[in-house]
Amino acid sequence: MLSRRTLILLAVAALAIAADDAQPKPPGLSEFRKDVRTLLASQPAQAAKLLKEAFAKLPPAGDAEEEGYSPTQEHADLLSDLAEAYLRSGEALKAIDVLEEAGVMLRKLHGASSPMYGVALNRLGDAHFEAGKYAEAAGLYKLLLPGMRKDFAGNVEHPALRKTIEHYARASAQAGKHGVAAKAYAELIDTVPPGAESREETAELSLKAASEFATAGKPKAALPHAEKARELFAAGVGGDDDAMRHAMSLNGLAGVLERLDRHDEALAAMAQALEIARAQRGDNDPIVASGRKNLDGLQAKVNWKLKQAAAAAEKKKPGERTIDEALAEKKAKAAEEAKAAAKKGGWLGAIGGWFGGSRDEERDEL
Predict the structure, then answer these.
(1) pLDDT (tens digit, 9 = 90+) per residue, 124-156?
(2) Cα atoms in the 13 Å half-sphere on the side-chain side of 339
(3) Which three-class secondary structure string do you get for 61-109?
């Protein structure tokens, strides 16, 4: 049985239709949308105006939080096009509002597991990214990925899955969640289709993964990705500018090696990058000047770190342990205790031995 609110809405819609009968009929909605979409690239503001007018002529969908809410696919389609017009006009916040409304409609029409609802959430994530709301965008992509990974378990190279992982990585990096971004880029590398034509993409993604791992303070995790990027760019996968991209990958590798205190290798990698840039661009090029400055800065940093280490060694009394030595000894002792606990109480008894405190707590205790 129809509710009183629904009956009122139907009556209003009937009156509106009757009033429109005296007016010239607009083209079918599909044709209208096709015509309007041709305006999006060149006249997005005009397209938005026409879409809002068309939406206003549809029977009201009602309030999503009240009984009688009855959206149609036409409502959702027009809102989707309107969001696109707003995005092309640089009005991302308006697009977010419209896409949220369209998403509620699509969920009502097709359910939360519907691909159409998933596409709406993906587009909503894109709108948040365009608006500079990176954490919100990452959250939406994260919400989508478990289901997508399950659906495409046998086809990890599917473009929709790869695009969502890439957007998740990009949004996470912009939100300052570099560890999350690094893992997403590493996952994306595993989805790259095999073949020589994909090696450049693998190199680019490896460089990004290395950068994010390093920024997150995980140079050991960054190293294999940095080495892979250098290897691929050295083999000439970078196209017309492969030499300069090889130099860029060497700079990235140098940064990771420096964080691992592999100073000689870091300096050698950065020096090689500078020589490649100089050979390609000449001594007076700004990139070469920047590379020379970076190499001098790295050398100064390495010299300072070596000087600090030497000073600490001089102050150390015979038989005295450094903090790192003490931490290593404590971890070894904890490992032995964990093994003993495991023999007595199984794996549950071993957990405390391995995860007894953070590195900062250990330093405080020492």
Answers:
(1) 999 999 999 999 999 999 999 999 999 888 888
(2) 5
(3) CCCCCCCCCCCCHHHHHHHHHHHHHHHHCCCHHHHHHHHHHHHHHHHHH
